[in-house]
């Protein structure tokens, strides 16, 4: 697994690096170890990777070798860069991905990519696809659309955006949305977990299944569930599992109708934030 990518930058370039990678791209700056901080430069963390800027006295920008950064909303990133005066170069030659190239403020070549996954058809003009960053507010509203969700989903927009970035960057996570006539009317999240038990069986966990209240009499829940099982088979999973709150008796009956068996007793423990040292 890749830990970080190092890009060179000229002496005295830290402010420009922070403005571009931190303010513009939204990466989080992380402190350099004291032994390395004296060398200058700055480090950033994205969703599942780190990007380090190191000072090079005889600096020359990397015009060929480059990192490819996966993003959840390619169009939004391109728009932000363009508005900030950084040109983007669209390229459509990589099958399965949308992408563009841009230069950082030091002239280093960067690539930004987003998987180009076709939408699945659920019938009656309804589709299901990978969620994009712009879908997050609609997904949160779906999660809030019941008594339990209204109590739990009280996070800040920044917290939800950070969580989406981490989900979207993880190849073992898929946040999906159901769409009809341009409206988000459903969602679910799939997680693939490798394990040694059951002879090394890959398992898929289904979470946060929601269909909008006004759409629940159309059979969309069953069709969405069938779509998730197809994704499990495509990945070679041998087991699909989920948990559902004990108060959701309608959901219990729904999953039982589709072959799920209440074979285990689920348990959860809510962790309090770790105390801050004085």
Helix content: 25-40%
Characterize the largest beta sheet: strand count, sense, and whether it forms a barrel.
6 strands, mixed
What is the total domain count? Answer: 2
| Overall spatial form | globular
Terminal residue distance: 35 Å
How many helices does DSSP assign? 9
Work out the radius of gyration. 22 Å
Strand order within the widest sheet? 9-10-11-12-13-14
Q: Please report which band the strand proportion falls in: under 5%, 5-15%, 15-25%, 25-35%, 35-45% or over 45%.
A: 25-35%
- The average pLDDT score comes to 92
Q: What is this entry, summarized?
A:
The protein is built from nine helices and 14 strands.
Task: Give the SSE layout.
Elements: E1 4-9, H1 14-24, E2 28-30, H2 34-37, E3 42-45, E4 50-55, E5 68-70, H3 74-83, E6 88-91, E7 97-103, E8 109-115, E9 120-123, E10 126-130, H4 136-143, H5 147-152, H6 157-169, E11 173-180, E12 183-193, H7 197-200, E13 203-211, H8 220-235, E14 239-242, H9 249-257
Parallel strand pairs: 1-4, 5-8, 13-14
Antiparallel strand pairs: 2-3, 3-4, 6-7, 7-8, 9-10, 10-11, 11-12, 12-13
Structure description:
The chain has 278 residues and is α+β, with helices and mostly antiparallel strands. The chain has 2 domains: 112 residues, Roll (2,3-Dihydroxybiphenyl 1,2-Dioxygenase, domain 1), CATH 3.10.180; 138 residues, Gcn5-related N-acetyltransferase (GNAT) (Aminopeptidase). It has a 6-stranded mixed β-sheet with strand order 9-10-11-12-13-14, with helices on both faces. Strands 1-4-3-2 form a 4-stranded mixed β-sheet, covered by helices on one side. A 4-stranded mixed β-sheet has the order 5-8-7-6, with helices on one face. Helix 8 links the parallel strand 13 and strand 14. The longest helix has 16 residues. The protein starts with a strand and ends in a 21-residue tail after the last helix.
């Amino acid at each position: 697994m890749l830990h970080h990518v190092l890009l060179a930058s000229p002496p005295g370039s830290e402010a420009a690096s922070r403005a571009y990678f931190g303010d513009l791209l939204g990466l989080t700056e992380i402190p350099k170890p004291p032994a390395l901080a004296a060398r200058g430069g700055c480090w950033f963390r994205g969703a599942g990777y780190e990007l380090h800027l190191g000072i090079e006295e005889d600096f020359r920008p990397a015009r060929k070798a480059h990192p490819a950064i996966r993003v959840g909303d390619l169009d939004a990133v391109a728009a932000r860069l363009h508005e900030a005066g950084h040109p983007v170069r669209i390229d459509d030659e990589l099958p399965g991905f949308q992408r563009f190239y841009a230069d950082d403020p030091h002239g280093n070549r960067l690539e930004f990519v987003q998987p180009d996954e076709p939408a699945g058809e659920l019938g009656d003009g309804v589709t299901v696809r990978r969620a994009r960053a712009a879908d997050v507010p609609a997904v949160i509203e779906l999660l809030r659309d019941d008594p339990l969700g209204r109590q739990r989903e009280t996070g800040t927009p920044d917290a939800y955006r950070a969580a989406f970035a981490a989900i979207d960057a993880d190849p073992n996570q898929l946040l999906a949305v159901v769409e009809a006539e341009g409206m988000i009317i459903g969602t679910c999240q799939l997680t693939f977990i490798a394990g040694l038990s059951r002879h090394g069986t890959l398992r898929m966990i289904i979470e946060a299944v929601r269909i909008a209240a006004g759409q629940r009499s159309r059979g969309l829940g069953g069709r969405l569930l069938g779509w998730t099982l197809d994704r499990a088979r495509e990945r070679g999973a041998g087991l699909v599992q989920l948990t559902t709150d004990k108060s959701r008796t309608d959901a219990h009956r729904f999953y039982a109708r589709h072959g799920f068996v209440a074979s285990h007793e689920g348990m959860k423990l809510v962790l309090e934030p770790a105390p801050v040292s004085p």
